[in-house]
Specification:
Two copies of one chain form a homodimer.
Chain A lengths: L13 H7 L4 H12 L2 H4 L5 H28 L4 H18 L7 E2 L2 H14 L6 H23 L11 H23 L11 H19 L4 H22 L30 H31 L5 H17 L6 E2 L1 H9 L6 H17 L8 H13 L4 H10 L1 H16 L2 H21 L3 E6 L6 E3 L12 E6 L8 H21 L7 E5 L8 H16 L3 E5 L3 H9 L2 H5 L4 E2 L2 H8 L7
Parallel strand pairs in A: 5-6, 6-7, 7-8
Antiparallel strand pairs in A: 1-2, 3-4, 3-5
Chain lengths: 591, 591
């Protein structure tokens, strides 16, 4: 009667399993390979029209990606070519294994910052070879963490970072990054020298252009190619004016050529293994959070299913491969995926196009970056990260849920005033405290009859709903657990006292029946059963009958097991509140 | 329209506050004093009939209490007179301040064991004066902790120890205590000497008598006076046979006279302050758990209200006073309170009677314990603690809730194999994981129409309920939070796919409307709102309409704030499932 229960999965695999039924071995192998490498599936239906979309999208994304990569490498305190390596290798792996059609893969701002912060906490000297090795180690373990989460179907853990926490975390990180970059942008480290006017202007333009592009969706490509244009224009300016000789700091050198193997660089023993694992696990989870969040948004927009666990396996594999080929942690980035999507990507093949473009740059064009001013990179980072500060989302969160807002602010100020790891812990803790808070003090509301119907609803929500003579109808808005069972019991007794006082003042009949609507009580534990027993006895002493309505399946089974149904009496348990009122309520009145 | 919200209170103070309205200052002071010392209130109505009940109950309880005290002191590795001191001073304080009419106050087995274990972990040599001082310090801080919980109205924290955890904890502790006492009972430390046959037989009798007493409620007094009888009989036997000279170990000496002041013995500085506080906090909370649990049970039985916070203030004060007068931690004990209740106690004055009897013993009869064999004390402890092993409760917990059973077993084996503190932490953790588990993977059930009604219920629970053509009606059985919002969304989409496949096989119409019954969705957060947006878009793409029914007050406000009502459409939100089906369902059929 119901779909397979896969409690530990956030995705739908039952239909996949069904596919294998009654197939030959070769066919099974084929299907299995297709499930690991979705490209074998969608690749067969790939058309020229798909290619056109993916080609344009890949090209556009690449033009955003290359300057971003060079900039993000700085956030991780690594040389630019490692980021370009990552943009070459990881998109290829993802194209083969990923199930999202819109995510563009590569280093991302927040993850790079997080990586840089955590790495330099352990090894201060980021020019040292140890630092680079620890970066590869962390990348490797980030991949292992992601792969493990996917294989063990623990993808749900990602959900423990609430949207509110992510918004706060990203905004905080964006502000930290921007403040850091202002140094570079305004040339503060060389403040005594001439400020970098030319590229400063360029970068301001870049920010403005970016935001203009965001406003008018058709002009998205302006935003997409703005960074590359800025880089080109400012590089040419510097080359012509020889500003680099006058104190404007430039990139100077990017190592060209393809990725070198770094498998032998990863720490597999010694004190750095544990540190690398810790950094990798945190960075891997944050990277996943970003990627899964983007992936879900686009999947919902274009209506296709995203297998969260498969995504994690793809991300994990790509980072492991990356760590073996001199890359650092890559993920699906917000800004690039948006550009990729808006440029009309059709499949994950756009990542292959992106990868090929980066390959060409790596092999042919690295020398041209010699004259690219660092300030323009800072401006690119600021332009990319300011989009992460999502004030509207924060306002919406404030409106919807004050506790969520606290989690959001916890993450935000945590990032700014403490560090990124603690910020995550703070936000997650607040989110969980909120759940426990709600479970500990649930609402118990008074129901009334909506005139002309047999429907009973909260009298506060529906002021026209009226109460029944000599009856008090209450709804408990939560499962009943040890944390709230005494609260619920006391609250019911208190409502009874309060209503009796109110009714006495109006000279109405005393309450003879307390009807508890159990619609929202989806579960009860042994403490809850015991407090219901106590409630029953307390009511019995004052000659008030306890009546239950709409008891769910699980709760009913537990009431039976504990013989509470017999104590309360089977004639006191009803399918609906209306049924209870018809049986025990006043016979003549408005019913 | 509703009673004062006192979120942080487990008790009812609103009526109390009302009392103060419009009264003169003297009257207010008087009421305030009455609220702190309930004896000033009930004392005014005290009758001879009350006195008779309390006198008999106090006397009976004392006859159980004195041998238990001497025995429990051994569990805490303290001299017996400290326990007798505690049974003299603390019941007096409680009688004045407590609001329960049935609790009998004094040292309790589990708390004494816990105290002894924790104290001797810090100071191995329990004969040293330091040990005694730490015991007073811990008692002091236990009182402070209890008082603080009461004053700050944090009584709800006690509820975080679920019934299941308490059952497991008590059973485990009882077994540990009994095993320890078997040594004493069988005289194992003196195994090479003659075993203590006389008192051994006595003790076995005591256990049997105790259990017989429990079975026949009218014979409770047999159980109540059995320990005292055993003590007297065995003491006389030892005195006549001079068995103490033949190797039977006896108490030898109990210091007589009244409590000495111990205020100057408490550590207020130095390394033991923190340790004392830690021990005291744990012991204080465990003591409260026992007392509040007993208090609630009797309050429900006799129908009076127990103010949890006031109870904590009373317990806290009595332990602080106790720590200043050479007592160790006292609380309401299971066995004595049961005897007190069965002997017909009427008010807390039975504690005063108990206290006076103990006073008489302390001043007059301590020398008679010289010949009391230690083995009989062990048997008394075993008799008292075997009642704590509540197999029926464990079986009931197993039947009702498997997770609760895990918490119970966690506490039980934690006590036996690790220690009492960890056992509590394990049990509380399991209990909380269970709540998070349920919140993370809530049920999403399919509803059907119950023939002949307009009621829609779970088709698994009501097999006669039938589904509506072209509609899928689902109920989400939990508030929607960040932890479960994606699960709920995926589960809804999955039910849709599954039902469509099933219906296609039976050549039924495709589903056009998904109706989500929100009865049990008492709350939603910003992640939940976002996943509903995604759900709406996903359904839109496959031309399925999303309809909501019975949206509660809080959720409705949030849907409006987030403009989700406008996205879904106000014509898609209904008061009840029946309303939605009437509007969008098939017109002709069985409706």
């Amino acid at each position: 009667m119901k779909p397979l229960e896969t409690l530990f999965s956030i995705s739908d695999n039952s239909s996949l399993m069904r596919k294998y039924k009654g197939k030959s071995k070769t066919r099974k192998l084929c299907l299995c390979l297709q499930s690991i490498f979705p490209i074998l599936d969608w690749g067969r239906y790939y058309t020229i029209r798909n290619l056109r979309g993916d080609f344009i999208a890949g090209l556009t994304t690449a033009s955003l990606c290359i300057p971003q990569d060079i900039a993000y490498a700085k956030l991780a305190n690594l040389d630019p070519h490692h980021a370009l390596y990552a943009s070459f290798v990881t998109p290829l792996v993802y194209a083969a294994m990923g199930s999202s059609r819109d995510i563009a893969i590569g280093p991302a701002a927040v993850v790079s910052l997080l990586l840089g912060a955590m790495l330099s906490h352990d090894i201060r000297d980021y020019k040292s070879h140890e630092y680079l090795r620890l970066a590869f180690t962390a990348t490797f373990f980030a991949g292992v963490t992601q792969l493990a989460l996917g294989v063990l179907r623990l993808g749900f853990l990602i959900d423990f970072l609430s949207d509110a926490a992510i918004v706060g975390f990203m905004s905080g990180a964006a502000i930290i990054i921007s403040l850091q970059q202002l140094k570079g942008l305004l040339g503060i480290p060389h403040f005594t020298k001439k400020t970098d006017v030319i590229s400063g202007i360029g970068s301001v333009k870049s920010v403005i252009v970016h935001h203009e592009g965001k406003k008018h969706k058709k002009l998205f490509w302006v935003a997409a190619i703005a960074p590359m244009t800025c880089v080109i224009v400012s590089t040419i300016c510097v080359y012509i004016t020889r500003a680099d000789e006058k104190g404007v700091s430039t990139i100077k050198h990017i190592k060209g050529g393809l990725n070198s193997v770094s498998a032998n660089e990863i720490f597999f023993r010694g004190k750095y293994v544990v540190r690398g694992f810790r950094i990798g696990a945190v960075a891997g989870i944050v990277a996943l959070t970003e990627a899964v969040s983007i992936g879900r948004t686009f999947a919902a927009m274009k209506h296709y299913t995203l297998d969260g666990n498969k995504e994690m396996v793809a991300m994990g594999t790509m980072n492991i491969v990356g760590s073996l080929t001199s890359c650092f942690v890559a993920t699906g980035s917000f800004s690039r995926s948006a550009v990729n999507n808006m440029a009309g990507c059709e499949t994950a093949a756009s990542n292959i196009v992106l990868s090929i473009v980066v390959l060409l740059v790596l092999t042919l064009f690295t020398p041209v970056f010699k004259y690219t001013p660092n300030a323009v990179l800072s401006s690119i980072i600021i332009a990319a990260t300011t989009n992460l500060v999502n004030i509207n989302a924060v306002i919406m969160i404030w409106k919807i849920d004050k506790f969520d807002f606290m989690a959001c602010m916890g993450a935000f100020f945590g990032v700014i005033f403490i560090n990124l790891e603690y910020a995550l812990i703070i936000a997650v803790s607040i989110s969980f405290v909120k759940i426990l808070f709600r479970v500990t003090w649930p609402k118990v509301v008074v129901l009334g009859k909506i005139p002309g119907t047999s429907i009973y609803r909260n009298i506060e929500q529906y002021p026209k709903a009226f109460q029944i003579t000599a009856m008090l109808i209450l709804r408990v808005d939560s499962p009943i657990y040890f944390t709230n069972c005494n609260f619920v019991k006391d609250r019911i007794l208190r409502w009874l006292r309060y209503e009796n006082e109110e009714r006495a003042e109006c000279e109405l009949a005393e309450i003879e029946y307390v009807v508890v609507d159990m619609s929202a009580v989806s579960d009860i534990d042994s403490s809850g059963i015991r407090s219901f027993e106590r409630l029953y006895h307390s009511l019995e002493k004052i000659h008030v009958q306890l009546v239950l309505a709409n008891v769910g399946k699980i709760v009913m089974e537990k009431l039976q097991e504990s013989k509470l149904t017999e104590l309360i009496g089977r004639d006191k348990i009803f399918l609906s509140v209306a049924g209870a009122v018809i049986t025990y309520g006043p016979k003549r009145e408005e019913l």
